[in-house]
């Protein structure tokens, strides 16, 4: 059933340029890099590295998100007039939400895993297993699918100003305001706080360790800072704008018009994360780069990773053979 929406005329011209340019660029980079990341994470899983399971799920979520983007490019090029079926509209909205927040969930899992490995290597060694990682990953997927399931049930196609608008209707509906507020606090703010705390404690432990030289400490500091900054740049502006919309926009057309451009710009910005993830979490590691070289050179013999501190894989764990805190 197509919903009838009272007219709130907004100029959608920005969509015709912003999303095709941004999303096509993301698609070109994200698909091959995340496919390679999937393969590299599989190699890590074979080495009995539980972190590989989280990396696999992160890459899978990013890849699924990317594969949905062509439909949104098609929608934008059609002047925000949905030309496909109502079910496809609901499915696209569901997949975009689910994979966006699943990605944030697995980024949180990775930060916690690294925290346990570096700061408490002995205390939490028994729970840092592949079985635990699989169980946690299943829980993350279940939470995201269940929390977004009603998007599939509720019609997300609206007849507005003569066009069929999919999901992102302006002004925002009241139920979507509540729905989005929950995602803002649980899907973004909570993961961000956990990541900042974990990586701060990781660097504190690294800084105290005498086995790691100053140059390696500086590299680790830069990497951790880059991870946090990338997450903040990708997701925080969008959620700040979304929060403002949730508070002031429901059924308020003038407010919706003022928030339209900031919302669209920050929404496009979120897609950058699925491009950054493979480089920050997979290719940055010595083991990951060795696996990538193996793929690119198509050689049977795998390059041995160096013994330098490797924050994103388990190579960093051996120097920390006792509790640091």
UniProtKB/TrEMBL annotation:
Pfam entry (one): 7tm_1
Keyword annotations: Cell membrane, Disulfide bond, G-protein coupled receptor, Glycoprotein, Membrane, Receptor, Transducer, Transmembrane, Transmembrane helix
SUPFAM superfamilies tied to this protein: Family A G protein-coupled receptor-like (SSF81321)
GO terms for cellular component: plasma membrane
Subcellular location: Cell membrane
Keyword Glycoprotein attached: yes
Residues of the G-protein coupled receptors family 1 profile domain: 33-281
Bilayer topology: Multi-pass membrane protein
TM region(s), chain numbering: 21-42, 54-75, 87-112, 133-153, 181-202, 223-244
One Gene Ontology molecular-function label: G protein-coupled receptor activity
Family in the record: Belongs to the G-protein coupled receptor 1 family.
The protein's name in its UniProt record: G-protein coupled receptors family 1 profile domain-containing protein
